[in-house]
Every structure is written in structure tokens, then in C-alpha cells.
Amino acid sequence: MIQNPGVIKRFWLIFILGTISATGPLSIDLYLPALPEMTQNLQTQASLIQLSLSACLLGLAIGQLISGPLSDRYGRKKPLMIGFFIFALVSLLIAISHSVYLLIGLRFIQGLAGASGQVLSRAIASDLFSGPLLTRFYSLLSAVNGIFPVISPIIGGYMIKYVDWQGIFLLLALIGLIVTLAIWGGIKETLPQSSRISGSPVNSIVAMLKLLKGAKFLKLIMASGLVYGGLFSYISASSFVFQNYFQMNVASFGFLYAMNGIGIAIGSAIPGLLATRVSEIKQIRFVLGSTLLTACLLILSWFLLNQLLIVVGLVLLIVCQFGMLFTLTTSVVMNLSLKNSGGISALLGLSQNAIGGLMSPMVGIMGSQTYLPMAIAIAGCIGLSLILFTQITSANQAK
């Protein structure tokens, strides 16, 4: 395990792992501005084009359960290279496809392949670092990763002015190829043979599933998933809240969305600065408490001070704290120092995607003409997460 890597090596790791972990979200955000053109070009319904988004998200969730355990058996580098080579190939096939049904199927495979970057970037970091060093590294990794969702729609919107929608997927194919070559030449295998799970690949899958029998581990990944549930409550409702309710124009909302994305990136970097002075668990409990308080203030603002600037300020504060919690919860889970960190990362990612995906439609069902459902959903997710972390720390103190 590396304890004091050089500055150049550390920045290279942050850059390459940040890019690897962001390729999944990049494949979603980059093509969003092209959805109307794709609907017209493929002569289909908007609902079918939107299904291609759901297919990719499903692939990203399931793919983590495949690449994570496989990496515990065969190491990190081979699954990553295979995953991104398939990602590049499928992106190229999407660019030349003319059927919406083929597009949906290929997008699912693209998600499966892209998931390897999300799950294995966390596993590689836990192979190299532990304790406060891991928290510090995750904070920088999350900050880099947080930039991609901000710039991706901007890049996609700019591209669609000058090229057809196929050009976006050609760019993704190029990114996949470059990342494959970067992994091949720029990343060494981080999981030694002695630390791998022996036997057939089924053994690593069984070992991953056994993790769910541990009450502490289950509570940890559920608590982390609930934080993502809070984030997706904001993401799914934000356009309705600010554009429909507060009558923001598209440009103003785009600026606000980008500002909040930067807020997440800044928040992600803060725990690394505190890692050597304040334990991760103490940081989590404090930030969960402050986030819950902020969400309650957002609820109260609906009844007392229903003003745009107040809502914008409270939401910005909430998403900054989300960024802190992403770093902290990931570090605590991956610092468990169990043998199968690939499986741990896979289950962590599944919890985040599943709860986040569940909260998105729930907020819509609660109503889209007010920001109150969004605020209640955020408060509910963060409150449940705080309860779970309090139970975990109370159990540890009782031992």
C-alpha cells in the first residue's frame, strides 16, 4: 500500500481515476441536449428515446455487480481495460445505428461496460491508501469527478450546434479508446495475487453477497445510498422548481445548475482538509446534522419566506454538504479493509444508484408545482441516514 506517493504520481492517479469514474455519468449527461434531434432523426417517440437513458442507468447499476467481484478475482487492470474497450466499441456502434430498439440495447451494454470505471476507481484507491490518506484521496477524486456533470451538458449542447447526434457518440468512442490506452500504459495492477479471491469467479460473487449479512456494512451502504437519494431528489425536481415555479429562463437555470455542481465539487474537497484532525465518523454525523437542519429551513421557507434567493442559497448549501457526504461515506465504507474491496465498491454503488433512482419518481409523484416535496424528500433521506449512522456509532461505543 502506498503511503507517501510523489506529487506527480498522485495527481496522475487523481486525473486518470477521476476520468475513469466519470465515464458512466459522462455517457448520460453528454447526449442529453441531443435527445430532441435523436427523436426526430430516428423517427420515434420521445418516450422510447428516454428509455435509452433508463437502459444506460440500469446497465451502470448491474455492471458494478459484475466488474466489482471479477476484479477481486482477476485484479483491477484487466476488467478495466476490457470494460472501456467494450465501451468504446459500443459507442461506435451506437453512432452508426438506425434503430431506436438497437440504440436502447446498445445503451444498456454501454452502461454495463462504463460501470467498471465507477466501481473500480474506488477499489483501486482503497488498494493504494487507507485511513485519512484514503479520505484525502477520495476528496480530490470526487472534486475532479464532480466537474464532469457540470461541463458535459455544455459540451453536448455546443457539439449539437455543429454536428449530428452521432458525433457525440463518436466522441464517447474516442474517450473510451483513450482511457483504455491510458489504463494499459499508465496504471499498474494494484491488487497483488496474494490478495485476490481464489477459485472460480462465482467465489468472488458469493463473497460479495456474504457482505450483506453484516448489519454494520448493510447500514453503512444504506446510509450512503440515502445521501444519494437526497441528491437525486434535488436533481429530479430542480428544473420544475426553478423554471416552472420560480419562472427562471433556461440560461439562468443552466447557470444555477452549474453553480450547484461546482458547489458539490468544492464540498467534496473539504473532508480531505480535515481528515488528519477530525475522524470521518465525527465529520459525517456533524454534516448529516447540519444538512438536515438546512433541509428543515428549506421546508420552513415555504411557509414563511418563499423567496427565490433564499431557496437558491439554501439549496446551494445543501448540495455543498452533499459533496462532503459523498467523500466521507465512500471513505468510511471502503476503509473497512475487507479483502474483497471490489465487491464492497459494487454494493456501495448499487445502493447509491438504487435509492437515487427510487427517489426521483417519488418526488415527482409528490408534486412538481412546489419545492416543498423536494425539501421534504431531502430531509427524509438525510434524517434516515443520520439515524443509521447514529446506530452504527452507538454500537461501536458499546463494545
Automatic annotation (TrEMBL):
Compartments where located: Cell membrane
Claim: Cell membrane is one of the keywords in the record: yes
Transmembrane segments: 12-28, 48-68, 80-102, 137-160, 166-187, 217-235, 255-274, 286-304, 310-334, 371-389
CDD domains on file: MFS_MdfA_MDR_like (cd17320)
Alphabetically ordered keywords of this record: Cell membrane, Membrane, Transmembrane, Transmembrane helix, Transport
Keyword presence, Metal-binding: no
Membrane disposition: Multi-pass membrane protein
Top-level lineage group: Bacteria
Gene3D superfamilies reported in the protein's UniProt record: Multidrug resistance protein D (1.20.1720.10)
Domain Major facilitator superfamily (MFS) profile: 13-397
Family: Belongs to the major facilitator superfamily. Bcr/CmlA family.
Name of the protein this chain belongs to: Bcr/CflA family efflux transporter
Organism expressing this protein natively: Lentilactobacillus raoultii
